[in-house]
Amino acid sequence: MNSNQQESMSICLPDELPPKKVFKPGIRRAPSRGYCLTSSQTAVALKNALRYIPASLHETLAPEFLEELKTRGRIYGYRFRPEGAIKAKPIDEYKGKCLAGKAIQAMIDNNLDFDVALYPYELVTYGETGAVCQNWMQYLLIKKYLENLTESQTLVMQSGHPLGLFKSFPDNPRVIITNGLLVGLYDNPEDWEVAVQMGVSSYGQMTAGGWMYIGPQGIVHGTYNTLLNAGRKMCGVPADSDLKGLLFVSSGLGGMSGAQPKAAKIAGAVSVIAEVDYSRIETRLSQGWVDVASDDLEKVCQKAVAAAKAGENTSIAYHGNVVDLIEYLIDKDIKVDLMSDQTSCHVVYDGGYCPVGVSFEERTRLLSEDRKKFKSLVNQSLKKHYQLIKTITAKGTYFFDYGNAFLKAVFDAGVTEIAKNGHEAKDGFIFPSYFEDIMGPIFDYGYGPFRWVCLSQKPDDLDKTDAAAMACIDPDRRPYDRDNYVWIRDAKKNKMVVGSQARILYQDAKGRVDIALRFNEMVRNGEVSAPIMLGRDHHDPGGTDSPFRETANIYDGSNVCADMATHCFAGNAARGMSMVALHNGGGTGIGKAINGGFGLVLDGSALVDDIIRSAMLWDVMGGVARRNWAGNPNAREVAMAYNRENPNGDQITVPHLADDALIEKVLKSWLEIHTCIDK
After folding, report:
1. 418 with 283, same domain?
2. Are 95 and 152 in the same domain?
């Protein structure tokens, strides 16, 4: 059977055993999260990993893979990792039979860049568990498939596994990806963990397994917008001003959370961000995204207060636990204007949150050796964290959940009073998520994290695209357009690039279409030296269904439905995006979100112009349409304008809104009648 298998495949891994690899010192490694498989499941896990590799190598590799599984909690196939650093190269340096195959290889390699990835040796890009794929055998096979991919084929990816190449057409997607999708009965973290250890599931986060991550820049813009609008709504900051004199406190300096100090500084605030892992602080210091670091609470807080008083904007990393930081701020009666949390609470028991009183090293040991004790300590810490937030908000601090499932984690730890209805989380929490209070109304207009990568990897090309994008924005249209204009104007000065020559820019449907068409024209006319890859974070108006984040401001009961993201994914595939992805989990955890994303290679062709006009509008307006149907006023405004003005003949169903007083009157009348009947 194995000889028949080898004869049947022209694209496969060679039957040569790669040498064992040496790991570069100082590169962060993913912690072991323990091992939970039964003996029979362990046997299947070994078979699952070995099926990528010719049988002649199995005798050598089986004990190695078992050792990885037992000691790391995963089979990574370290031996198969390519030598040296992995970085996105200029597109003409990749092998391939079609442009998209080369472009997507560059996107994958950027996700695994030592400067970008959280745990590059374990293929984790960000969010503690967000992975490009499960193991290095998959990585090598994916690369081989992309090198052989033609304009008339599609590569099918299922939770990191390259299922194969299948016949399609030039206007179909070149790659279609799903990650972590589980049947409802088993759609929970415990069953997912078993599936991962067995090598049959993978956590794609949003843009890790969707291969569209552009480094922490990808969230700086959203954090910048969030902080600006939080300051305006809660602290009286004028619409044309910044956060000068305000103090922002939060936690986390990892792959996504590392954006916080940079965003706060661009917005004009002073920030103190707690982080227990000093290697992450070192990364942000070396990038210039944090100004100073200290483990001395007194020094940290004195510097922050002085800077805020002087109207300076500085970013401070506190090497320690955020619970200790908040307790100190309360004890010393230090005024904090804005507060959040960006620890990876979507994987709160997998190392995403470090309990107070536990060192980072002890946290890592407990993860591997005593998960039951670790979970208990996490729950205790979350309860204390919650009580401190209650205390500091009573003093005037505005606290918001920044979409990391922090409030849900507190609820799951046993604090039911944090739920609005006092007993379950479906109706939200007593503290608003940033989406309810701040970003949801902006997303209702269609604004979201549009992004692009210059595949030449030349800074000059990025400069040209920045200027072209800025020329497409009218800063006087809405306050958000002004913010986005300022963002792109200052992006180079703020040194946003980490990894690929890429940019993020919040835009609505019209803005994205205009910019995308202009970029495609630039490729066509040779104004840039290579094609451009478009994409977005899946955290977008129509990209994600998540009741604790993206759909938290939808109040018609459909906040728990996953129709929008699924249709976004299917519609983008039907309209010819180069790459489409559908994931379970995102930034809020397995079973708590479904999110869909895309990538589109701009090659200068008229076909791509047509795809932009169709797919880009659908990608945004599908989400606006759903938000409009929920009755969100900004989305209704945009939907009605779209119906009047779009050139395609499209029509969005706009709701007739019922009068609240009428509904109250009817309910009251019914209650009175039936109370009398009962009596």
Report:
1. yes
2. yes
Q: Does residue 205 have a known ligand-binding role?
A: yes
138 in a known ligand binding site? no
pTM of the predicted structure, to 2 decimals: 0.91
485 carries a ligand binding annotation: no
Name the E strands within 320-470: 338-339, 398-399, 448-454
In a shared domain, residues 170 and 116: yes
Do 280 and 428 fall into the same domain? Answer: yes
Average pLDDT of the chain?
94
- Is 536 annotated to bind ligand? no
Q: What is the pLDDT of residues 487-497, one digit of tens each?
A: 999 999 999 99
Q: Does residue 448 share a domain with residue 362?
A: no
Q: Which of 387, 407, 434 is the last residue of a domain?
A: 434
Residues 6+ apart with CB under 8 A from 426: 547, 559, 560
Please, what is the Cα angle at 627 between 626 and 630, to 5 degrees? 90
How confident is the model over 542-557, as a mean pLDDT?
Answer: 93
**DSSP symbols for 524-583:** HHTSSSS-EEEEE-S-STTTEE-TTTTTTT--SSGGG--HHHHHHHHHHHHTT-SEEEEE
Residues 500 and 424 in one domain: no
pLDDT in tens, 230-263: 999 899 999 888 999 999 999 999 877 888 999 9
Residue 422 is labelled as binding a ligand:
no
Radius of gyration of the chain (CA): 25
- Those residues with Cβ within 8 angstroms of residue 363's Cβ, 6 or more apart along the chain or in another chain: 31, 276, 351, 354, 355, 374
Among 59, 48, 73, 215, residue whose Cα is nearest residue 138: 48
Query: How far from 60 is each of 32, 44, 48, 56, 495, CA to CA, in Å?
Result: 23, 17, 16, 9, 47
Q: How confident is the model at residue 536 (pLDDT cuts 50, 70, 90)?
A: very high
What's residue 228's pLDDT?
A: 92
All residues at 6 or more sequence positions from 567 whose CB lies less than 8 Å from its CB, including other chains: 622
Number of domains, the chain: 3
**Quick check: 404 pLDDT over 90?**
no
The structure tokens 């990792």 sit at 81
Residue with tokens 């003409």: 92
What distance in Å separates the CA atoms of residue 646 and residue 609, rounded to the nearest whole number? 16
Are residues 360 and 224 part of one domain?
yes
**179: helix, coil or strand?**
strand
Helix %, strand %, coil % of the chain (to 5): 50, 15, 40
